[in-house]
Each structure stands twice: as structure tokens, then as C-alpha cells.
Amino acid sequence: MKEYEIIIGLEIHVQLKTKSKMFCGCDNVGEDKESNTTICPVCTGQPGTLPVINKQAVDWAVQAALALNCRILEYSKFDRKSYFYPDLPKGYQISQYDQPIGVGGFINFEINGQMKKIKITRLHLEEDAAKLIHSDKDETLVDFNRCGTPLIEIVTEADFNFPEEAKIFLQELRLIMRYLEISEADMEKGHLRCDANISLRPKGDSKLYPKTEIKNINSFRAVEKALAFEEKRQQALWEKGKQPDKQSTRGWNEKTEETEEQRVKEEEQDYRYFPEPDLPPLHFTKEYLKHIQSITVELPAERRERFISMYGFSKYEADILVSDKKLANYAEEVISELKEWINTERPKDRGVTWHTHKEEFIKLVANWLIHRLLALLNAQHLEIKELKVTPENFAELITLIYEKRVNQQTAQKVLEEMFKTGGDPSNIIEDKKLGQIFDENALGKIIDEVIKENPKVVLEYKNGKGAALQFLMGQVMKKTKGQAEPKILNELLVHKLK
Questions:
Q1: By the 8 A CB rule, do 131 and 142 touch?
Q2: With pLDDT > 90 as the criterion, what percentage of the chain qualifies?
Q3: What are the φ/ψ torsions at residue 39 (nearest 5 degrees)?
Q4: Rounded (5°) CA angle 367-372-375
Q5: Burial per residue of 7-34, b for 16 or more beta-carbon CB atoms within 10 angstroms, e otherwise
Q6: CA 40 to each of CA 36, 117, 152, 458: distance values in angstroms, whole numbers, following the listed order
Q7: Cα(155)–Cα(104) distance, rounded to whole angstroms?
Q8: Which residues contact 19 (CB under 8 A, 6 or more apart)?
Q9: What are the chain's domains?
Q10: What angle do CA 138, 140, 144 make, to 5 degrees?
Q11: Over the stretch 206-243, which tens digit does the pLDDT of each residue have?
Q12: Which of 91, 134, 148, 364 gets the most CB atoms within 10 Å of its CB?
């Protein structure tokens, strides 16, 4: 059987969360408002109206282009892209054609343990169209609230070889947009939309064959599944000698998990691009670009590397912590509080410094933050921004665990109470009497009781049965409700059994 090579490229639209729309002053949060209430003559295409460029949208587009390693063109301009569709009131879209914001970028990301580089052809600004709503009565309604929302369109090279790569790339792109704080980039809410272009060719062939564009994809999982389906469909056509001979557009049907033919795709000349006469060109000076670069934040890839090199988190731990900017910030605040505690609270004669005990503290932070605190958040379907536990209080809990003032079981109870109330761990331990018992006299009395109550087990221990000691320790723990400090308990019990 002949083998085929998959050629995949993506066209991604990212909604910018500016306060106002791209070319008018209308509120840019129309998705939560009643239909057709955040509109004006400009965004609904009334005759005689004039657009005005949203400066914030331009700044954010440049930030995004720099984050994607694009070269920023000195001059950029807007163009009219003409086509008729019910959701486009002007009969054209204000977009960018031959002078976009940025060109020649790339994103590196990891997949299956290997680094993959996807080249970015271009990034440009444009306005969004309205939203079509298909009712159960076989009617189509138009909501213009979304019309005019600022979009950045990101076009990749056809560098993807497998559907899974497209999914992982989009997840990394979403994370970058969220770190820049220019978009929520939520696919299910339409903040990030993707059209995937796919074609096949026989292995060894260098020719590019007509591509099929897949639309209506609203999740990362759907991107992978749609491309996988289309790969099989096109391969079957090739094997029958009926390979695609023209570009086409197909929609993804989530219910049937199949692509469906929509229309023959427009060619570039069909859009009749020409410069937008009502908007001036953009001039990006060196001073302006220096300013934008100065406010650019640390990006996910850089932060992962720093979490590993600076703190000693494992790659797995760094991936989880960096997957949410607020979570990564929280982790760093916890570490800062721990360092402060070591520098100010720990007696210096004990030899505890951040440098000498960093590995131990980082393991505690990773374990309790990833496996305990995040588990509580996920169970309640909450986000990190809704967390009541402050970094300071969480760091205090870590120090209590480190000092063995609470055992693992008790610490979990304390964390759960902190999660509910936001309380201070020391106060919770005191109020609920959850602290470890270090007092040897108090423990000694309880041990004496247990020895007196279990003469047969004591005899078994003296006859060499090791499990008897564990049983007796368990009885002491039961009486102390798990609060006996294990090391002291073990030493006292062995001494008294001699």
C-alpha cells in the first residue's frame, strides 16, 4: 500500500479582550449581553460612518507578534477584504493583506519528549464578524454584539505532520496569550478559533496538492479528531484515484465526528483586497518597539526553564505549575515566604539555610501544592484566583510539616480547613488541638497505659515479634488521635519495653 505524507497548516483567530471594539467605542464584552445591544452605526456598517483604530489592540497585536518571535514590519496598513455573508454587515471586513503586523515567527514546543518548531507566516489585525444563531425553527438570527471585536489572525506554515502536533501547538499558543493577558483564548467560548488546512501527498512527492479547510472546531480535542478523520477520508480518495483537485471548505460535525462539505474555498483574488481608504498606515518606530519590549512578560517556555534551573522543580512539576500563570505566581510567592521564614525565624545555630535545605523545601512545596491543594481546587471546580489560602499561610503550613509539628494526616486536615476558611494554620491547629505531642512526660503516661492494657502483645515483642511494636505504636496513636510525634514515640516505647 502506498504511503502518504500529511501536510497541515493552521489559521488561528484570537479575540483580544480590549475594553472597546476594533474600530469604534462599543463595549467589547458583548457575549454576556442581550443580543444586539453593544452596537453602533460603525460596527453595523451604516453608510457614512468612519472607523477609528483601537490603539490598545495595536499594542497587544505587536506584543503577541514579538512573543511569537515575529519580525515587526516598520509600516503596516489595513485593507478591505470583500465578501458577502449574512454576518458581515458592510459587505467587507477590515483586515490586513500585504503589510501585516509581524512576519517570519515561530513557536517551539515539546511533544512526546521531542522539541518541535512551527514557523509563523504572519500575524495581522482585523475585526470579527457577527454571530449567526441557528434556531430550532429552522431560522437563522444575527447577533451583531461580536461584530467589530478585535482579532489577531495567526497563520502558520504547513509544518505539522500529525494531528496531535496541532492540538499541542494550540494549547501552547493559548498559554502564551494568557500569559500576555491579552485574551482568555477559550476555544469553547470562541475566544480562540482555528481553521485547519490539510492535504496529503505520496511520500517522496514534493508537490503541494489542493488543501481542505476544516471549520467549526471548538476544542483542542476536536482539532485532533477532525484532522485525523480528514486524513483517513483523503487517503481513501487517493487510493481510489479520486484525490482532491480543488480547494474546499468542510465543517466539523461534533455529533457525528465527521467533516461535512460546505463550499469550494475562495481564492485570494476573490476577496478583491485594496487599501482601507479611511484608516492611516501604522508606523512602528524603534522607540515604540523598545517600549513594547519593555513591558513584555516572561513567557511560559522561559518560565518552565527557570522553575527547573532556579528552584529545582522536576520537568513534570514545572509543566503543571507553569500551565496557569496565576498558579506559577502563587508558587513563587510561597517560595518567597519560605525564604523569608528561614532568614528571620529559624535559629542560625541549627544550620538551616535556603541553600542547604532548598531541595527538601521544594519537594514539600511541589507535593502539597500540586497533589494536595490543586486536588481540592479541582474537586470544587475552582480556579486559583478563587483560592482562600494565601501564599503566606500555605508557606507556614509547609514550615509546620518541615518541623514535624504536624504529621501528614493532620496537615491534610489543617489544609482542608484552610481551604474552607482561609484561616491561619497555627490558629487552626491550636483551636482544634491538632498539633503534634512532643512532651515526653505526657507521652510516657499514655505509653504506660497501653503497655498495661496489652500484656500479651508486650510479651510477643519481648519474644522477638517485630510487628508487636507497630501494634503498640498504633494504640498510642489512637489514644493521641494521631498527634504523637512518631520519632519520640518510637524511642520512648522501645525504652519502656526493655
A1: yes
A2: 67
A3: -135, 165
A4: 130
A5: bbbbbbbbbbbbebbbbbebebebeeee
A6: 9, 43, 22, 87
A7: 10
A8: 27, 28, 56
A9: 4-294 (no CATH), 300-431 (no CATH), 440-496 (1.10.10.410)
A10: 160
A11: 888 999 999 989 899 999 999 999 999 999 999 998 88
A12: 148
pLDDT of residue 450: 76
Buried/exposed 329-362: b ≥16 CB within 10 Å, e otherwise: ebbbebbebbeebbeeebeeeeebeeeeebeebb
pLDDT number for residue 35: 92
Provide the angle, in degrees to the nearest 10, between the axes of the packed helices 325-344 and 391-402.
50
In the block, residue with C-alpha cell 460596527: 43
pLDDT in tens, 411-435: 999 999 999 999 999 888 878 776 6
Please tell me the distance from the alpha carbon of residue 398 to that of residue 331, in angstroms, as a whole number.
12
Q: Is the pLDDT of residue 24 over 70?
A: yes
Full 3-state SS string of 324-362: CHHHHHHHHHHHHHHHHHHHHCCCHHHCCCHHHHHHHHH
Q: Is the Cα torsion angle 444, 448, 453, 454 positive or negative in sign?
A: positive
With CA atoms as reference, report the closest residue to 154 among 130, 111, 131, 183. Answer: 183
Q: List Cβ neighbours of 264 (8 Å cut-off, separation of 6 or more).
A: 246, 247, 248, 249
For 273, list phi and psi in degrees, rounded to 5.
-60, 140
Interatomic CA distance for residues 474 and 461, integer angstroms: 14
Q: How far is CA 175 from CA 14, 239, 323, in A?
A: 12, 39, 7
Q: Which helix (H) or strand (E) holds 286?
A: helix 286-294
User: How many Cα neighbours within 13 Å face the side chain of 417?
Assistant: 18
- Cα–Cα nearest to 302, from 107, 152, 169: 107
Residue-wise DSSP of 448-470? HHHHHH-HHHHHHHHTT-THHHH
Pairing assessment for the beta strands 192-202 and 4-15 based on DSSP bridges: antiparallel
Instruction: Tell me the residue type at 249.
Output: T
Q: Which helix (H) or strand (E) holds 143?
A: strand 140-143
Backbone φ and ψ for 136, nearest 5 degrees, come out as -70, -15
Eight-state DSSP code of residue 74: S
- Rounded Cα distance between 234 and 7, Å, is 12
**Among residues 393, 346, 352, which one has the least CA distance to residue 369?**
393
Q: Are 214 and 226 in contact (CB under 8 A)?
A: yes
Amino acid identity of residue 446, one-letter, is: I
Q: Contacts by 208-211 with C-beta closer than 8 Å and gap 24+? A: 208/7, 208/158, 209/243, 209/244, 210/244, 210/245, 210/246, 210/247, 210/248, 211/7, 211/9, 211/244, 211/247
* Neighbour tally for 388: CB within 10 Å: 12
Residue 190 in contact with residue 218, Cβ under 8 Å?
yes
Looking at the chain, the number of H-run helices and the number of E-run strands are 16, 16
